Amino acid sequence: MKEDREKKHPLPEDEEEEKWKNRSFSWLELGILYSPTLTPAAASRRLKAWVLANKVLVSLLNTAGWNRQQRIMTPKQVECIVEILGRP
């Protein structure tokens, strides 16, 4: 019975887990998720500024194969950002 109830009404953390799917993201897409009140271009710039200001994050991204001219981040690179900045 309890299992049936949990399937019909997931707990809040289950809903949050379902909303976030790690995948490839552009800077623009991920920036919008982190700063939804900004224009897409401003959100993208803000995210990139946050990343570049964090030496640990830049190091993790470089290890994951990132370069600054890259427009689309791999799931592994997105994982690095989420690990340091938290989920958007």
TrEMBL record:
Pfam families: DUF4248 (PF14053). InterPro entries: DUF4248. The lineage of its organism: Bacteria, Pseudomonadati, Bacteroidota, Bacteroidia, Bacteroidales. This is DUF4248 domain-containing protein. It comes from Parabacteroides faecis.
